[in-house]
Amino acid sequence: MSSIEDTRVYESRYQQIAVEMAEKIAEGWYEVGDRITSRSTIATTFHVSPETARKAMQVLVDMGIVTVRHGSGTYVASREKAQLYFEKFHDTVSIAQTREQIVEAIATQRRDLENLAKLLDDLIARNNRDHNTSYLTPHDMKIDANCNFIGQSIGELDIWQQTGATIVAVKRGDETFISPGPYERVQAGDIILFVGSDLSRQKMLNLFNSPTPDPASLND
Predict the structure, then answer these.
(1) Where is the HTH gntR-type domain (predicted)?
(2) Which of 130, 155, 181 is the last residue in one of the domains?
(3) pLDDT over 60 at 132, yes or no
């Protein structure tokens, strides 16, 4: 027999007792016509008050499971009704349990989504910080003697338009020219410091390291 204590019940204590008594009758612990346990014994067995025991027995009477013979006691009236009552009770409990599980699952899913949203916000914030930090960290590039732009001014090169980078300094030997103007000319050995995205850095490298055009190709 599956004890009522093994099931999460959503009814009052006297209804729980009534269900367990109905289960015993349905399983044949008592035959139809048998006299069943007195209210005082039920109260002692289930550790409840006599009033709670009385209410439990009244439920069984109302359901037609037992009958009361005044001056004699309480007797089993129907095993079938006991079985129906027991099954109906557990169906109700099962529905209530399923509903609670669904509610808990929804709450868990909501918490998971909230945590996921927080993680996503944190990831975006970190990515933005990393991007901004990377953008503001100067890159450096040394001008080779074979560079096509030696002797040209920074203004003539249209650095921003071509690469999106901004030149912030030029190191030439022991000197450093901060924020060089558009008239500063590129010289071999210069180290150009600039800021920009990774794409801008790649464009700067491609621009200053591009091969010198073949004169023959210019005449084609």
Answers:
(1) 11-79
(2) 130
(3) no
